[in-house]
Fold:
Amino acid sequence: MNERKIDYLRISLTDRCNLRCRYCMPQDIASVPMEEILTYEEICEIARAAAQEGIRHVRVTGGEPLVRKGCPDCIRMLKEIPGIETVMMTTNGILLQKFLPELLEAGLDGVNISLDTLQRERYREITGYDGLEKVLGAVEACIQAGIRTKINVAAAYGLNDSELLDLAGLSEKWPVDVRFIEMMPIGYGTSYHGIDNRQVLEQLRERYPGLTEADPQKDAGFGPAEYVQIPGFRGRTGLISPIHGKFCGNCNRLRLTSTGKLKYCLCYEDAEDLRIIVRSGDPPEKRRERIRQMFRGAGKRKPLEHHFEQPDQISEKKKMSEIGG
Ligand code: SAM
Ligand code: SF4
Structure:
């Protein structure tokens, strides 16, 4: 066990999604009944207690956060919590342009848009929906609106290995960081062979010999990405390497699932049920103290490191959309 500074909480608003990505939720699966999902008030009760224990940055995710009714209201409520400095979102981008004005008005600080291919037909094959144009339109709308925007690419053989340089090229055209995430053996991701980011870097170096390490201080973010800068590009290229560049020693995050489980590490099922606490009927001060205790103990409860390289060690059996990616 090891104690780390924990200041980042990823909150899953829903396990539902409007896409069917092959490596995440390839077909319809039974969604959790709405009564088992935390209400926005319950989420904020937890976030308020978490902020009192040092959580400063929140990211809403899912499933697809924008399919949950009133998502911008939740952003607004989270932004109002004393101590929470930033509220960001990870989204597939399909509904983003539609909700962007409301999200901006609610105070959203940044958005990560998931995009694994630039080929229309391949996008449809990967996600089950002909939505590439919508996602690209959302990226442009976000840039125009001036909101901090990043593109996340889950990289795997047989999925998008032939397109990595094209995807990196988005940050030549646009002032956005493009980040490659090694596919993790979670849920349906187990049937893919993730691309080692060291190979991505090699491809980038070969194509762009002038590539340099990016200034780590610039727009440092709150996560584990390592950035390089391609000369002449407006944005950076990020490498998030949970498999071939374990960053567990610096992992500053916890996850709250849509049903209220506080998770310490993606690899293990170990979690604390906070929904029981918020629905206990205890007086608010007692509930708050109980939730605070869970966050106080979280640094010690995080495992030293994950063992995704040893499949028999992975105790988490839930799918990424249920956990909150
Ligand atoms: N629906 C939203 C989206 O797609 O951005 C938010 C939830 S999704 C689970 C969050 C991110 O997790 C996406 O970028 C997706 O590509 C990534 N993801 C899903 N399964 C993964 C896996 N097994 N390994 C690595 N990343 C994964
Ligand atoms: Fe939905 Fe995101 Fe999973 Fe794709 S990766 S199925 S968009 S939750």
User: Anything to note?
Assistant: The longest helix spans residues 132-145.
